[in-house]
# Entry
Amino acid sequence: MRLRLKDSGGQSECGTLPPGKTTSDGDDLRCFALQSPVFHSATAALHRTKELFSMITSFQSRFSQRPINTHQPLYGRSPVHPPNNSAGSRESRILSCPFLLIAASVVQLTLSAAAADWTEFRGPDGQGHSQATQLPLTWSETENIAWKVAIPGVGWSSPVVAEDRIYLTTAIPVDADDDSKARHSLQVLCLKADDGAVVWQKEVFEHGADEKIEMHEKNSHASPTPILDGDDLFVHFGPHGTACLKTDGTIVWKNQNLTYAPQHGNGGSPALADGVLVICCDGKDQRFVVGLDRSTGQQIWRTGRELDPSRGFSFCTPTITETNGHLQAICPGSGGVWSYDVKTGEQLWRVAYGEGYSVVPRPVLGHGLVYVCSGFGDQQLFAIDPTGSGDITDSGVRWKIKKSVPKSPSILLVGNDIYMVDDAGIASCVDALTGELHWQQRLNGKYSASPSYADGKIWFQDENGTTVVVEPGHEYQEVARNTLGDGKSRTFASFAFLDHAILLRSETHLYRIQKAE
# Structure
């Protein structure tokens, strides 16, 4: 029995197959399906559908007596970690089909029900993958713009989307002409997705004019991206406060107890897993990670960073995965990357990387590895096996590279390849299993936003409104290059996606980019 996963355009979404193989060769394709972009985006929804996954596990176990391997990240599994089947066993292929059929059905149902949802920084899987289709390849201020609305204040958080509503945060200066001396109203906006009209706008916190924070020119008081989970919206403004709102704007709880002294302002977004909101708090005075109860906002645990680099401040967003029976939060910071048990805050493992600091990129998962950038000062990209424990600096690193590694943008994993762009605009494609360089290309411009994979393309956005669209592959192939505004308006926020549209946030506006009907 054979399985072929296809996207809406009829193209295989199973990632990179071994030479000479196709999806019609009759091989057991579980490993390829699990590394595909389709599965990447479905994983977040599968985590929330525990009863369905339990049913799949039970069903597979009933027929094959083999439990699903949960010792590696659910998304990103690849041929380097094949299923535990006997080679060439026709029986094992047939017995795996119930799992494949049910899993494929769940994926299809999940994507059809939630294809438009973009629920956190870098999407529902946190990896920068979108299931949006029919996206325009060309646009300008007068072409393929469904709407453009002014956003008050300043913020570099990405929009999040559920159903027909868009949510984003902003910081609005009040009672002063000089932004650096003003009181700031820290607000949440809800907009209609179809026309950009404001549904509601609410102040959640304020930053007093007497609260001195050294703000970097590329940062804002509203840089962390919110998280949407059902009817709950979680917003984070660094030490100014964290809150949960209902999607109608009702405030459920506030927490203003995460006090530390940020360097250059706020940055990292929270992550949510198993009822715990995980937040990295890496200031110039103290460095720790906390877990808050999603229902009450109360602190469940707090774990300090035991390394003491010369520059301790960082701005990273945790990445969640399950390994060795632990739901773990991968949390880079200055000097190293740590894994913490989501429920208890217990440190599971650590890799030290010297004096890397001001870490921004969110870790990426795949092929049984976690990919981590070490930030400014000594920028490197590490491929780490997350199954170890304790200090795995020597034993857990599978490979590392230094050339043209981004300090601000996150990297992007598609199939067996990593795509990335450094802050100076040099884009690279490297092999995810070895770190070998496939190509490198100067895109021009400077980059802060993280790249995305959507509609079969790689999307790079620079700091001044230019987007470069590239075909994935082992040779650089530029498809399109588009600029919004005058080429000087700042665009630091990463893309969000819905249905057949791109949401791009500039310094002053939010755009819905979509093919004209």
In short: DSSP finds four helices and 33 strands in the chain. The chain has a mean pLDDT of 80. Helices lie at 30-34, 37-48, 50-64, 90-114.
